[in-house]
Amino acid sequence: MEIGQIAVTVSDVAQALLFYRDILELEFLFSPGPNLAFLAAGSVRIMLSTPQGAGSVGANSILYFKVTDIAAMYDAIVAKGAAGERAPQLAAKLPDHELWIGFVRDPDGNLIGLMEEKR
To answer: Tell me, what's the pLDDT at 58?
Structure first.
């Protein structure tokens, strides 16, 4: 099994779309109405939705995006308007690589993780 779609509950889909499409640069797929938008993060579809019986604005699970050059990506995302939460730092030294993690927040306060596995 693999993950096909993850829902992110937001207060305003149009505003959230600006963040996920323009700041995180996820690929916009389609929007069937004002309260739904779909984007691609690799092979996983991200659904932006206003609360529809499940989920709370600003209290979603953390999405971690794999990036290369985490420091440059973090700086670029913050420069585009994302709220910086924690600059990238070493999270773990593993036998074959280092795991680096940083965090930003979307317009509703949802935490977004950036991760790089440095070899």
So the answer is: 86
